[in-house]
User: What shape does this take?
Amino acid sequence: MKMLLTTIKSENHASELELRYLYSIVADAPFTTAMKMYDELTLDLEIFDAIVRGQYNIVYFHIDENNERRIRTIAEMVKKAMPSSVIIAGGIQVSFDSKNFMAHNPCIDYLIRGEGETVLFNFLRTLITYEFDFANIAGLVYRDEDAIIVNPYDTFPALEDLPFPYDKTEIYDTGEVYYETIRGTADRSIYAQHYPDARVRSLSLNRVCTELRYFLVKRVGKIVFLDTYFNYNIERAYRIFEYIINNDNGITSFEMNIDGDKIDDETIRLLSEAREGLFTFNIDVASTNAETLAASGLRENIYQLMYNINRLMQSAKVDIKLSVTAGLPLETEQLFARSFNKVYGLAEGNAVSIKSLRVKRGALLREEAGKYGYIYCSETPYEVIATAMMPAIELIEIKSLSKVVRAFSGNEFKLSIPRLMTDTSMKPYEFFRKLSEYIFDNNLTSKLLSVESKYRIIYAFAVSLYEEINDSLKLQIFAETLHQDLENNLSSDAVRKFERRGWELETW
Assistant: This one.
């Protein structure tokens, strides 16, 4: 018997780690087991061809909100090509409303709900022993003639009982690895997905340090923690930070999702001892509007969070990535703009991003969608189309603006964009909205992938703004500031090449 565990990589990196956990559980089973994670750019037909060529008896697809539609298509083709193969699906995306998913996807023979390690192990055991005792496998969804049977969730295992997910697979690419020290979630927002038992379960500090040591010896480029939130326990987080700082190999960096409310003075003092670039913290502010935060199930007092972020940026050597979310309950475009302006001002040159709200399966928001007038996509990834307070056109404009913010947020324009905002008396949201409109109106979206092109876009946009206020002197000073940003971020050879081509849009 041959089995394949597979998924398509996406921005939801949890799928890659979860697949490794599953492989570590079944790798020693008395049959051939392979694991394959396909790149997002791989065509569906190429994935289908590879699976069929492998002649697998069992194919397990790990599904998330970003790859679900593609995997459904591939699974259907595989079933048609190999009717006798057993097709299994799993992942948090299909762990809710599982019966409906199975009903609409007849190519799926079995579905695993919740955390799948124990469920998959028990399922394979019943196949190997020919018992086929599906009714007694908690967490399994299966077909019984024309009926779809949904068994209750399995009891979630203690995280300490699971094997190290990289034990059975060698790390060949030392660029970036994904890791977790907790399961369950400290995030109680109404738009977060929650299993019935959402209690936080954690690895022991001793095991965390041992496994981090493995990565450090391998000299991986970056370890991305998928915990939500890494610092749910302040003292535990402090000890892990301390271990990382004391064992820094000078190469590996660490990225964590942080609860900004739980940053204390002791942690800030410790982080001030870290190497520059050792830590990156993702902090989701969501909104600064108290009513919106309350409706979203978040803490209403934003001031402690803002204070903590400011202290962290002033005193600790940590890269900060801040985010706000568009489409939250009770938030108008004006209120969102106010939130964005506050967060952008707080960032002081650190990266800022705008998230699009999704009404996910298993989230309380789906049950309360009517209460807030939500209209959302019926297919994954279930992005919000409109709310009672924000029509579709405003959300579309914010999504367009978010791409521009992502392209122009950070150190590449650390000096020039703040000067341009000051000279034109524009707040951040207004500035990026106008820049977004300029890029869209001039068909420049495809140019955002090039750093050099972005400098030329900002220059051309600035020329149009200074012409409006009729101030050529300020334009000249701005051009010098922009050139300084250019020199700070490009090599001297790249700067000389840039200057030979010039600043005008017509030259490229």
Observations:
- The chain has three domains: 2-150, 170-409, 411-508.
- Residues 411 and 473 are 25 Å apart (CA to CA).
- The first strand starts at residue 2 and ends at 8.
- The chain has 18 helices and 17 strands.
